[in-house]
Predict the structure.
Amino acid sequence: MPVYKSENGTYYVQCFYRDGRGAKRHKVKRGFETELDALLWEKDFRASHLGTMDITFRGFIEVYAAEIKPRIREHTWITKEYIIADKVTPFFGDMRMNEIKPVDVVRWQNELIAYRNKDGEPYAPTYLRTINNQLSAIFNHAERYYDLPQNPVSKTTRMGSSKGGEMVFWTKDEYLKFAEAIMDKPLSFHAFELLYWTGIREGELLALTPADFDLDTAELSITKSYQSLKGVDTITDPKTPKSVRKISIPRFLNEEMKEFLDMRDDLEPHDRIFAVTKHFLSHEMKRGCEASGVKRIRIHDLRHSHVSLLINMGFSALAIAERVGHESVDITYRYAHLFPTKQKEMANALNELREG
């Protein structure tokens, strides 16, 4: 790393380079108040002595992080940081920014497209698109602010897709069959009860603590989200500001959670109730589907199932959006196909108005 911290709290930079005659040179610059100041000086020095953006990808990521992190939500940065560290830097880290070509991007894309996990499953098309967009954002930053001649990602075909697969969900009867099949494990049963009957996100479920439940008023407070990054449990703000909300839960679910929390005398008020991983929930989903014969869906599809249930019960997009932490326009757009009777009802009402 080119930047170091002095004993007096300031930062300094060491640069090793060769001059026009090929002789090795050593440059030290001291007295920077912040690490970012030192990184930017080092970047400018290399640009003037070695050519524009003659800095490693890994070195530029330090500059990118220092400038982007303060401007976005913590939850968003943590996701970006993980993608960069795990999916991007291992391939491009030691390459110099001004030497990365479109063909390098294509080779990186092909590695990710060919990836299969231990169950033989590839990355989802939407996840591949997210990774691709993150790499492009890094090069856009370099092009916009640091005179990189061109973003090499812009000359390639974007991998993945911005659209997810077909939306699938369970009916109430399908869910009840599944729930009966997993009742032998109380932790699993209560986790899926919350997912189906409240529509909360998986990360929101895994961040829940006893203190989040007001069992006297039958309300659940959603104020945080969980994810595991490189094996480290991380609690962040929810996905969006709209995601911070209180959810009224049905009486039967309130009673179930009261009994479950009474059994869990090992929990302190701010301990995670469901101290498991997303992989555990996926495994339990698979187990329950095989035991019940219900079609396999993703964990996130339980959220779709909850929304579709509420639509069928006649609730408005606005009311549903407030419950699940979305904007109402998102509910209207994403679930338009589940409102088939609304258009007919509108037409009938207009017809009655005209003829009345």
Q: What stands out?
A: The chain has a mean pLDDT of 87.
